[in-house]
Amino acid sequence: MVPEPTLEGFLRDLGLRIGAGIVVIGIFFGLGYLNRTDFFGLSDFLGNQSVFFGSAFLLVGIASLGWMMIQRYRA
After folding, report:
1. C-alpha distances in Å from residue 48, one per residue of 55, 60, 62
2. 43 neighbors 35 (Cβ within 8 angstroms)
3. Is 46 exposed, middle or buried (0-12, 13-18, 19+ CB in 10 A)?
4. Residues 6+ away with beta carbon under 8 Å from 52
5. pTM higher than 0.70, yes or no?
6. What is the mean pLDDT of each run of 10 residues along the chain (75 residues)?
7. Which of 13, 15, 74, 75 is nearest to 3 (CA)?
8. What's the gap between Cα 59 and its chain centre?
């Protein structure tokens, strides 16, 4: 049986989704900033568009796996 939806559940789910979106956008902006400022010479590495997006999605994947691990051990 599916539990009846509540306002509290909706707001919790909405907050988690907004937080996840902020993390993803933050990863892309952070990598863009590292690329622009040439932090530790990463501009040569991140200058290629496919490498930039590949690195960003790899970091997003690592963050999502970390979040799943946290949720698994929290329950």
Report:
1. 11, 18, 21
2. yes
3. buried
4. 31, 32, 35, 46
5. yes
6. 83 92 94 87 85 93 92 80
7. 13
8. 7
The DSSP-derived string for the chain is: -PPPP-HHHHHHHHHHHHHHHHHHHHHHHHHHHHHHHTGGGHHHHHTSHHHHHHHHHHHHHHHHHHHHHHHHHH-
- CA atoms within a 13 Å half-sphere pointing along the CA-CB vector of 14: 7
Contact 70, 34 (CB under 8 A): no
Cβ(31)–Cβ(56) under 8 Å?
yes
Token representation of residue 10: 């909706």
Chain mean position to CA 75: 22
